[in-house]
């Protein structure tokens, strides 16, 4: 049994007496679960924003160049004016979209992707391509799940 336990080798220390693994630790990195949760909150918020259904479609429409609100709405089937307004406002707040008001009667408002919004196009394109290529697998998984659920209901009675 003793041969299954590997003795721990002491880590070589630097001239300062600090173990080599300790010098690689970034003091800004979170160490506790609570610290990790706090550190992930901004990442979670960004991922929630960029993965939203309407965000993906807005970025896709604006990838062709600046558009007016009505043009964006025409290109996105099913989006309400309220939802599109909220999505554009959030994208502007987060720095993905710029909003330019041209004084006229009525005022002209154009939306365009910022540099960061343009950088977002490629990751969204990759995810979109993956979703398109795997949509049949997702449909099959949903069908199998529905069959299992139906079988479980049948057996429960």
Structure description:
The chain is mainly α. The protein has one domain: Winged helix-like DNA-binding domain superfamily/Winged helix DNA-binding domain (Arc Repressor Mutant, subunit A). The protein has helices at residues 20-23, 33-50, 53-62, 69-75, 81-93, 115-156, and strands at residues 67-68, 97-102, 108-113. The chain has a three-stranded antiparallel beta sheet. A hairpin with a 5-residue loop joins strand 2 and strand 3 (108-113). The longest helix has 42 residues, at 115-156. The protein is extended and about 70 Å long. Mean pLDDT is 84; it is low at 1-7.
Summarize the helices and strands and which ones pair or pack:
Layout: H1 20-23, H2 33-50, H3 53-62, E1 67-68, H4 69-75, H5 81-93, E2 97-102, E3 108-113, H6 115-156
Antiparallel strand pairs: 1-3, 2-3
Spell out the key features of this protein.
three-stranded antiparallel sheet, mainly alpha, single chain, Arc Repressor Mutant, subunit A, 157 residues, extended, disordered N terminus, 6 helices
């Amino acid at each position: 049994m003793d041969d299954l336990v590997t003795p721990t080798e002491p880590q070589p220390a630097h001239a300062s007496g600090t173990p080599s693994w300790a010098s690689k630790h970034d003091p800004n990195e979170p160490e506790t679960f609570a610290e990790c949760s706090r550190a992930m909150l901004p990442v979670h918020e960004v991922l929630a924003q960029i993965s939203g259904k309407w965000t993906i479609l807005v970025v896709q429409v604006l990838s062709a160049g600046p558009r007016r609100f009505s043009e964006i709405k025409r290109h996105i089937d099913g989006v309400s004016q309220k939802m599109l307004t909220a999505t554009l406002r959030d994208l502007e707040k987060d720095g993905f979209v710029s909003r330019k008001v041209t004084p006229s009667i009525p005022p002209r408002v154009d939306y365009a992707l910022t540099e960061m919004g343009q950088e977002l196009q490629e990751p969204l394109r990759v995810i979109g391509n993956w979703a398109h290529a795997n949509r049949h697998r997702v449909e099959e998984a949903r069908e199998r799940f529905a069959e299992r659920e139906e079988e479980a209901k049948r057996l429960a009675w």
